[in-house]
Structures are given as structure tokens and as C-alpha cells.
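I'll show a sample.
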Amino acid sequence: MKLNNAQKKVALVCILGAVGIVGVSLLYGLVGQDTGVPGENKTPDTLFRCFIIEYNESFAKDALVFHLTDADLEDHPEYREGMETANTSTMEWRDGKRYIYEVQDYSGDLGAYNLCLENYSQSECRSHLKLYEYRGRYFEIRCIPWYVGPK
């Protein structure tokens, strides 16, 4: 069966129309993600990998030190657990510091541990090491976005 030019044009228009509809549907699916039911607890879209690094006491003299209590860590038990593992850690010290623990944090509330701007200028915060003292030990918490889900 041979198609004439008019039939070829109609077939091409139909195919392009179908491709356009599928493309728009896919684009709408990417842009207009389901926001869920109001009040429904959803896991936030960003996962942070937070590393707890212990520093020896000699670093504290040149650092901005923020003292944490059990009450400060009450809402963040995974960080408290990580800092408490320093007591039994067998990780090797290198240049006065050692990796202690990793926390996967969905809270996005990294500001809870960024006490620097409350007490110091922005330039001081950027130019100094920030350590958190907990039970006589000194820690740095470094967080990086690990997974950013669809918005």
C-alpha cells in the first residue's frame, strides 16, 4: 500500500501531535509534583550527610567554640550518639583530628548547629574553625547535601 503526499502529511501531523502530548505530559509531571495532603508528614526532599569529626584540645584555642549540653542535643539524638561514640572510638588520629561518626539528616535544620552568626560577625564565622564542645571533647560537624529530591 502506497501513501500519497496528503496521507503522509496527515500521518506526520498525527505522530508529531502524539509526541507533543507525551512530551507535555512528561514535562508537567516533572514540574507539577504532587504536594501531598495538607498536614501529612512527608520526608523532606533533601538528605544531608553530616560528618562528626573530633579535634584534640589544642585546636580550641584558635577556634570559635560553642558549648553544647544534653538539653541542646535533646532534639538531635543522632548527633549526641555520634559525639558519645568518641569515648570508645578506635579511629586513628591524624593531624590532631579524627573521623567519629556520620549522620543522615533529613531535618534541613543545620542552623541548629550554626550558632556562629548569633555570637560573631559573618567575617569572623568564615575565617575561624567552629568547634562544638560536648562533655569536654571538641567536634566539628560538616554537612553536605547528599540527595535532593524532586520539588
